[in-house]
Each structure stands twice: as C-alpha cells, then as structure tokens.
Amino acid sequence: LDMTGGDHGQKEKERMVGFVSEHASDLLGARPVVLAVSARDALGSKSISSDGKRANSAVWKRSKFEELENFLTVTLTDRVKLRSKMLNPLGVAEGMLDDCISTLKSQKHNLETDLATLCLLENQMNGWTAELNENMTKFVQEAGNILHSEGERCHELIKRMSYMDQWQWAVLGDASAFEEAWTKSKRGAISSVGTEDELLTLVRDMSDDIATRARAQGQATIEYLGKRPAVTSQSLVGSVTAASRFEDTRKEMQEKMSESVKNVCSSHDPVTEQDAAMQSLRITALGSSALFAGAFFDGTATLAGLLDWTIGLSSASALTIAGASVVRYRNRTLAASHQISWDESKERLETSLFTVCSKEAERIKARILNGISPYTRYVQSERERIDRLTGRSEDLLNSAQRLRNRIVKLTN
Q: What is the residue-wise DSSP string for 175-240?
C-alpha cells in the first residue's frame, strides 16, 4: 500500500479491507474476519525493540500485528489445529477427485458421438439386412415360380390340344408333333432352355448381386466411420478387405444353391415325364375311342332297326357322354398330378434356398461388423473404463465427505 501522507495510507487500507471483505463474503457465504496488518512494521518493531518496549512502540501499534497474534491465540485452539491438520489433506483429495470426475464427464461427453455412431450403424445394418432379405425372398419366389410354371406344362398342353391332336399323338404315334407341342407348352421362359439351366442362371445372378451388395455395404461402412470427427486414428476403424471375403461368399452361395437346384431337379426326368404324359393321353384316347365306337354302333343299329329307338338313342347318348367325360376327367387328372409333383418340388427348393440365403445374410452382416471390430472395441472399452472410474471416484468422494463429517463432529 501507499504509506505516504499524514495518515500513513489509512484510507487506502480501509478501501482494500472493504474490497476483500465484500468479495470474500460472496465466496464464503458469510462475513469473514479481515485483519489488516503491516508485516514490515511488525518485523521492524521486533527487530529493534525488546518485548516490553515493543508494546508501547508507535510502529508496533501501527502494524496491527498484535491483534492478529491475539486472534490466533484465542481462536486457534488445539481442537481447531487438529481439525485443520486432518481436513487440509482431505480437502486436497476431494479437490483431486472433483477434477477426476470433471475430466471423466468431459471424456464421456466426447464419447457420446462414437456411441451415437455405433447406434446409427446398428440401425443402418439392420435396415440393410432387411432389404437384403427382401431381395432374397424375391429371388426365392422367382425360383419357385419357375418350378410352378413347369408344373403348368400339362395344363397348357391340354388347353391347346384338341381331341384329334390327342388321337394323332397317342394312337397314331406322331411323337414328333407331341414333342413339339410339349416343348411349346412351357410358360414364363424360353422353351429351349431347360428348367435346371434356367434356375442355375438365376442362382449365379443372385450370388453376384448379394456379393456386390455386401462389398458395397462394407466399404461404405468403413468410409463412413473414417469420416467421423471423433476418430483420432484410421487404424481404429478396421478394414473391410481383411475381414470380409465377399468373393468367397459369392462362390459359397452359388455352390450351395446350385446343389439345392440339382437335388430338386434330379427328381424330375424330362424324358420320363414326357413319356408318362404320352402314355396317359394314349390310354385316355383308347378308352374314349372305345366308348365312342360303342355309341356309334348303337346309333347305327338303331337306324337299321335292330334296336328300339328309345333304347338305342339312350345307349348311344350315354356312351358318347361317357367317352367325353373320360377324356375330360383323365386329362384334368394328368394335369393336376403333374402340377402337384412340381409344386412339391417348388416348396422343397424354396425352403432350401431360403435357408441358404438367411444363413449367408447373417454371415455377411457378421463379417462387416467384424471388419470394424477395432473401432467397436475401442468405443465399448472406453465407455466401460469411464463408467468404472466415475463410479469409483464418486464412491471415494462420498467416503471423503463422510470422513469430513466425522472429523468435524469429533473436533467441535
């Protein structure tokens, strides 16, 4: 302070005491005791005076140091000294724990971006998997439609042929005409392509599509994580090429689905089915021809007067209706039997393909997530570390507070 002037800096001292008292009250919540002393005057008085003369010295009185000594002698008891010595290191520990908790909270706040990224990634992967499963379901349905279309071959053949065609093929033995009609009766595909070849082509296309989608998703995931602001090192993200062998995925899927297609198609021999259809049409044609011949005989006999008109016409009509009914019933039975056989194969193929596709979809998802496992492990381990240290720090801070209360209670 400026000690010059007649009052030796009294006004300046009062101003400083007021300033300290006011601001200390705001910090402490109570009006503190403020003693304004002059260490220079006290030291000078003690240096040049004995104890008895010092009490009457003007310099000693001006230093106000005697008030400080009296205050400390009266207020600083043994209990207060003990409490101060015990609470001081405890306060330092509490301050360190508060700093630790604040640091951990800041780290947790910074980690929230990574946690949100993982949550977003999980939702995005679930959506991608659902889309992949939807495409796989469409593929399985398309494969099933090919077999169902093959089952409709007899329906189409019977719908297009006339009785004369059936008689020509089955009775007169025009095999080439029947084979041509049988080939043209295939619906929904090029008739020159076999069912198995058509399914294998579809399997190859689907395997390529799934592998391409998986590779694109894996690379997009890695690129997205690499652009996150919280990533401090690219090595934390991972590598899609090291963890995801999408070319192997394509080959494995194609091999498994091709094996399923071959197993299903092996139960259907095109030549055997064609011969069976021809044999059924032949039996139907011969049986109906016999009935029509009987009707023709009864009609001729009636016209020749060999049979009564009522009996002859009734018999001829009944045999004609029976012959037509036999043709209609047996042809429908043939078409239905052929359809049922292929529909059963359709269900087996769809079940097999859907199982293969579902397993591969889960494997692809696992491979992509495994590719970013370094980043995932980093985020999870950091969250566990922060939560663990925060819990321990809070427990220690609570223990310190309880210890403080006990010390205050014992030293009061």
A: HHHHHHHHHHT--SS-TTS-HHHHHHHHHHHHHHHHHHHHHHHHHHHHHHHHT-TT---GGGT--H
